Each structure stands twice: as C-alpha cells, then as structure tokens.
Amino acid sequence: MSDRFRLGGGRWAAFVVLIAILSLGACGAGSRPRRSNATIVLNDAHPSFRGVSLGDTHAQVLARLGKAPLDTAAYGVLTLPFGVNDPTDELGLPATGPSPPSSTLPLLKRLHTIRTVAYRNVVFLVSSTRAGVYYFGITASGARTSRGVGIGDSLARARAAYGQILHCATADQGTEYPQFPYCGARLGRHLYIYFGQDPIRSIAFASTWLP
C-alpha cells in the first residue's frame, strides 16, 4: 500500500457514516471536548489533542476523552467531527479517511479494522494494528500549531511559517465533492500535517500522507 493517500474511494461507507453523524447530531448527545475559544497549542514534533496522541489505542482515546458520540468500525469513513453539518469541502478535510501506514498492516487484512471516533471538534481514525491513532482532524476555533498557524489563518500564513516543506494544491475528490485548497507537509518519519481551506478551517495530523 502506498504511503501517499489519494482522496476518494469508499463512497458508500462514507455516505452511511455521514447519515449516522447527522442523525446522532439531531439527538444532541453530549461529548468531551467542547468548543472553546481558548488557545489549543498543537506540538508539531509530538502532536496531541486533549492528551490523545498518534499511536494511542482505542481504549486510550476513550480513557482520556470519555465515550464518543460516534464510535464505529468501517472502511472509507468520513473525517468529520461529530455534530458538524458542513460538507467536507467547506471544512477542508478529505472526503474519506486515509489508510494506516502500510508497514503496520497485518498479513491477513481481514484481521484489521479501522474505527472512527468522533467528538464535537475532533475526529480520530484508529487502527487495530500497532499504528493505533494514525489520523486526527481538528476544527476547534482555538487550535493552532506550535509554529503559530491556527484555525482562521490564511494558507499564506501557513506557507510563511513552514516554508518549502509545505505542499499546497487543490484537492481533487472527484465529481461527488467540490474542490478546495489545502497545504500539507512531512514533518518527520511517519508524521504529516495538513491545513484545509483558506482561511484554514481544519488542521490534521497523521502518520500517513493525506493530500
């Protein structure tokens, strides 16, 4: 499996999960964390959100954040936080989530599952392999990276802060989803960052390439 993620695929599974998100949102289920204007600093070198880091297990996510309003196992799942009604193109998130790093996949793929664990302003993709949490996307208004780029900033600011390592383009998700601008960079071995939309509406970290 390539380390480079191509947007698209899993449309039926994505549609099913979208319906689940919207229906659960109508029920008004509670969750941690809540939206907040307080600054949330995301460490580029060791990214985490509310104590959950890349590589954590599903059990560790629930232990730190509590039961999630949306917690399901599926392939090709949407990368939307719980309760978000905006289309993925408005948030600047991939329409469907990436696969875990290929080096973590078992020989028998039928033994491998992916869970989407979604709270109100963050969504985690968790593999049953040793990759654990291999992606999380954040839409919290106070979130910003340790280089000072946050939700609401322009992609130009991101380019100034990250320089030549940042790759910027327009997401091509096929005819089902409108295009949107994004920037992404490799920060280290199995560590990538992603800014979606302009002004930025989402920040994501992953152990595999997103754009």
Question: How are the SSEs placed, and which strands pair?
Answer:
Elements: H1 11-27, E1 40-42, E2 48-49, E3 52-53, H2 58-65, E4 70-73, H3 88-91, E5 114-118, E6 122-127, E7 133-138, E8 143-145, H4 155-162, E9 166-171, E10 180-188, E11 191-196, E12 202-206
Parallel strand pairs: 1-8
Antiparallel strand pairs: 2-3, 4-5, 5-6, 6-7, 7-12, 9-10, 10-11, 11-12
Describe this structure in words.
The radius of gyration is 16 Å and the shape is globular. With 211 residues, it is α+β, with helices and mostly antiparallel strands. It has helices at 11-27, 58-65, 88-91, 155-162; strands spanning 40-42, 48-49, 52-53, 70-73, 114-118, 122-127, 133-138, 143-145, 166-171, 180-188, 191-196, 202-206. It contains four helices and twelve strands. 18% of the residues lie in helices and 27% in strands. Mean pLDDT is 80; it is low at 1-36. The longest helix is centred in the first third of the chain and has 17 residues, at 11-27. The strands form three sheets. An eight-stranded antiparallel sheet has the order 4-5-6-7-12-11-10-9, with helices on both faces.
The coarse overall form would be: globular
Number of strands: 12
Percentage of residues assigned to helices? 10-25%
Q: CA-to-CA gap between the ends?
A: 15 Å
What ranges have pLDDT less than 50 throughout 5 or more consecutive residues? 1-36
Order of helices and strands: HEEEHEHEEEEHEEEE
Structural class: alpha+beta
Cα-atom radius of gyration: 16 Å
Rounded mean pLDDT score: 80
Strand order of the largest sheet: 4-5-6-7-12-11-10-9
Helical run tally:
4
Task: Give the strand content.
Answer: 25-35%
